[in-house]
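#lab-general

N.A. 3:47 PM
ok so I finally got the sequence cleaned up, no stray characters, all 444 residues accounted for. can someone with queue access submit it? mine expired

B.Y. 3:52 PM
send it over

N.A. 3:53 PM
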Amino acid sequence: MSLQSCSLQELNERIREVLTNAFQGTVWVRAEISEVRENASGHCYLELVEKDEKGDTIVAKMKAAIWANVYRILKPYFEQCVGNSLTAGMKILVACTIEFHEVYGLSLTISDIDPTYTIGEVALRRQQIFQQLENEGIATMNKELEFALLPQRIAIISSETAAGYGDFLHQLAQNSYQFCFYTKLFPAAMQGDKAEQSVIEALDAVFSAKDQFDAVAIIRGGGATADLSCFDRYLLAAHCAQFPLPILTGIGHQRDETVLDLVAYESLKTPTAVAEYLIDGMYQAYSLLTDATEELHDCLKSWQQNELQRLNTVAYRFPQLLTGKTTHQRVQLATLIMNLKYTALQTIQHAHIQNLNNKKVLADKTKWHIYAHANSLQKIEQKFQYINPQTLLQKGYTLTYHNGKRATGSKQLQPGDKISTVFHDGQVESKVTEQIFTNGEHLF
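B.Y. 4:20 PM
back already:
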């Protein structure tokens, strides 16, 4: 009995016929892109895979193609919805037909794509990365840093040709307050597969000179939002979250926040917005300084007025103090006189009782007491006369006042000062034209 056989071509034709009959129309397939490339003719070729639950082992693999006439429509639609182009590692849901070619084998021809599935997968992946950062305790480390009171020294991580880099510099330089900023560019690729590592290397360069800067601005601006996938990577987010300087992001997208935005000190939509944030920080510091200056001026003015009032009060009370001093001395004098009379009377009465015949003893004792009290009275009188301002003025002395305050030395006055000189019979107003010190020095 002979074995039935067929050629390889016949076998492949049978397989194609079976597949065509079994899978008529389109099939929606979930898969992960492991490789994607576009050729010059506009076709897009992909390699689709499926991994096990742990995400390590590939359990299925197949080639797929999107022909140019379909790709021209699907590409912009997908990128507008998702904010990303088709890239390796992305999960997609596609409508495709199963094709089997006798030479090229089995493949899928993609005719449609569901962007909502990919959006959900991107959001889930973003959430998983941020959750991992939170579990490691580093998600909010950069947000908890203290922002500089004067954020003038800015390290910039951007492409030198990025659309937003020039806008950022122009906005800082042309600020209406004329604040000065020092900026230094640390070049990095801001899109593509190498962008993540490039930005990390720029961060390392900033870290080596971190004492020279107050903050880091990661700016991009312009370009396709499909190139933002590099900012949704764990390694870059972990570096930024733990960076010792506050990081400001302005990567030019309006719809979604990347993981980098979530961990940065402050996320702003555009490079221009980052510049405005820095200018506003400088203005707040300027306002604090202005308020402090005005408060200090008000305190000094109040202190000056209080001191002037106190000096005027002292000057007004000075004559009263002298009058009070002389009145006190007069009271003391009257008290001594009364004491003298009382002592003399007591002495006389005692002597009269003790010895009415001893007049000489009484007279001597009385004279002694009178002499002693008279001497004391004379000293008090002299002291009274010495401190009496009117006596001093009668002797030719004068009192000089400047601005309501008694001047006690020539160095308290300056040429041009107006002074009041008090005599015993009145006062005169004069103006200082020359100072002559005791050492002979003249001051004109």
